[in-house]
Amino acid sequence: MEVVEEDSKDLQQQSKALDKLTDHVEDRQLNSLRVQEAMASIAASAEADWNAMKMREKELAAVKINPADVDIIANELELDKKVAERTLREHKGDAVAAIRFLLR
Q1: Distances (CA, A) of 76 to 43, 79, 95, 97
Q2: Separation of alpha carbons 65 and 72, rounded Å
Q3: Can you give the residue ranges of the Nascent polypeptide-associated complex subunit alpha-like UBA domain (predicted)?
Q4: R_g of the chain computed on alpha carbons
Q5: Quick one: which of 6, 17, 80, 95 could link to 69 by a disulfide (CB 3.0–4.6 Å)?
Q6: Which of 28, 53, 78 is the last residue of a domain?
C-alpha cells in the first residue's frame, strides 16, 4: 500500500507541475496575441494620421495666396518665407488674420 500511495502523490505533483507549465504557456500565447492586436491597432492609427496629414497638406496647397502678402509678412515680421506662406495658407489667404496669429 505504501508504494501505491507514494506513486499517487508523485503523480499528483507531476500533474500540478504540468498544469503550471501549460498555464504559463497559455498566458504567454494570450499576451502574444494582445501584443499583435495592439501593434495592428497602432499601425492602423498611424496610417489614419498619415492620411489625414496628406489630406490637410492638399487642402493647404489648394488655398490661393498672394505672393506679395508672403513677402510683406516675411519681411515685416522677419520670418522665413516658408513660415509666412504656411501661416497665410492656414488662414485661407487672409493676410490680416495671419499677421494677428503671428503676433500673438
Answers
A1: 43, 8, 12, 15
A2: 12
A3: 63-103
A4: 33
A5: 95
A6: 53
Whether 46 and 1 map to the same domain: the answer is: yes
pLDDT in tens, 24-42: 656 666 678 888 888 999 9
Cα–Cα distance measured from residue 29 to residue 76, given in angstroms and rounded to the nearest whole number: 62
49 and 67 assigned to the same domain: no
Residues 46 and 77 in one domain: no
Indicate the pLDDT class of residue 57, thresholds 50, 70 and 90. very high
* pTM of full prediction above 0.70: no
3-state secondary structure the chain: CHHHHHHHHHHHHHHHHHHHHHHHHHHHHHHHHHHHHHHHHHHHHHHHHHHHHHHHHHHHHHCCCCHHHHHHHHHHCCCCHHHHHHHHHHCCCCHHHHHHHHHC
How confident is the model over 58-68, as pLDDT tens digits? 999 999 999 99
At 22, the pLDDT band (50, 70, 90 cuts) reads low
